[in-house]
Amino acid sequence: MVIFWNLELGIWNLINMDIRQSEEYAFFTKSLGWEVKKINGINIFIKKIPVLGSIVKIQRTEKVPFEEIEKVAKKFRAFQIILEPAFKIDPEDLKKYKYKPLSSPFIPTKTIIKDVKKEEKEILSSFSKNKKRDVLYAQKNGLLVKEGTLKDFLTLKREYLLKKFILPLGINKETKLLFEAFRDKAKAVITYKKDSPEPLAGAIILFCEKTAYYWQAAATDKGKKLLAPTLVVWEAIKLAKKEGCLFFDFEGIYDERFPQNRSWQGFTRFKRGFRGEEVIFPAPYVKTKLRITS
C-alpha cells in the first residue's frame, strides 16, 4: 500500500499494493532463480548462495513482520536480510532486530506518481509547457505509436545499452521472462516513423491494481531528436486510462539521499516534465551476518 498527497486535487490518494507484492512479480522473480515465500500476505524473496547461505529481501510492504522474517532467515541460513519498506519503520524495531542503513538501494526510493483519472485533455494540459510542446512536435514529425512487439523493444534496448558502453548480457532472457510472468498485464509501447519499420523509442508498461508502471524505456539517437520518448509516455498514459488505471507510476527518479545515482538526474528531469506527485520511500535497511555453511 502507498499513500501520497495529491497536491493538484488536495486529497490523499491510496495505491492498495505495490507491484513487487503481486503474484505476477513473484512468478517473475522465481523464474530468475529466487524462492518466494508468502507469509501474512507478504512476498519474501530468498536467493540461495553456495557456501554463504542465502539473501532475503522484503520490498514495499505496509508492515514488516520481523518475527516471521527471522524464522525464514533461520530456515534458509540467511547471511543478509534487506528491507525496502513502503512506510517508516519504528526505530526501536530496527534496533531490536539489529538492522542498519543500506548504502545502496536495490529498487527506487523515490518516484513520481501521476493521477490519470481526469480526461485526456486535462492530463495533457497538466504537463509542463515544454512537454506539451514536445508532444505536439513529435506528432507533427509524423511519428506513430502502437503496441509493439517484444522483439522491437529488445532491439531498442540493446542499441541503447551499447551506446552507453554496457553489454546487454541477459537482457533478452530477463525481459522475455517478465512478459511471460505478467502476460496480458505487460505491454510494449513503441514509436515508429511513418512508412518505416524501424523502432525509434519504446517502453514496457506493467499493470497492477489500477496502476500502470513505466518499467523500462529505451530510444535511439534519432528517436530522441524527434522527441519520440515524450510521445511514448503520452501514449502510455492514454493506454493506462484505457486499461482502467487510476495512477501512472514513473518507477523511479533521482533521490538526493543516494548521490551515487547521479546518472539518474537526466531521466528525472524528463519525467518531471509530465508533472505528478513525488513520493519518497523510507531508506532501505540491511542485517548482515556472514557465516560459512557446511
Q: How are the elements arranged and paired?
A:
Layout: E1 2-6, E2 11-15, H1 23-31, E3 35-39, E4 42-49, E5 53-59, H2 66-75, E6 78-84, H3 91-96, E7 100-101, E8 110-115, H4 120-125, H5 129-140, E9 143-147, H6 150-163, H7 171-182, E10 186-193, E11 199-208, E12 211-219, H8 221-225, H9 228-242, E13 247-249, H10 265-272, E14 277-280, E15 285-288
Parallel strand pairs: 5-6, 12-13
Antiparallel strand pairs: 1-2, 3-4, 4-5, 6-15, 7-15, 8-13, 8-14, 9-10, 10-11, 11-12
Describe the protein:
With 294 residues, the protein is α+β, with helices and mostly antiparallel strands. The chain folds into two domains: 2-107 and 282-288, Aminopeptidase; 118-245, Aminopeptidase. Helix content is 33%, strand content 30%. The protein has ten helices and 15 strands. The chain has helices at residues 23-31, 66-75, 91-96, 120-125, 129-140, 150-163, 171-182, 221-225, 228-242, 265-272; strands at residues 2-6, 11-15, 35-39, 42-49, 53-59, 78-84, 100-101, 110-115, 143-147, 186-193, 199-208, 211-219, 247-249, 277-280, 285-288. Strands 9-10-11-12-13-8-14 form a seven-stranded mixed β-sheet. The chain has a six-stranded mixed β-sheet with strand order 3-4-5-6-15-7, sandwiched between helices. Strands 1-2 form a two-stranded antiparallel ribbon. A hairpin with a 5-residue loop joins strand 10 and strand 11. Helix 5 crosses helix 9. The radius of gyration is 20 Å and the shape is globular. It starts with a strand and ends in a 6-residue tail after the last strand.
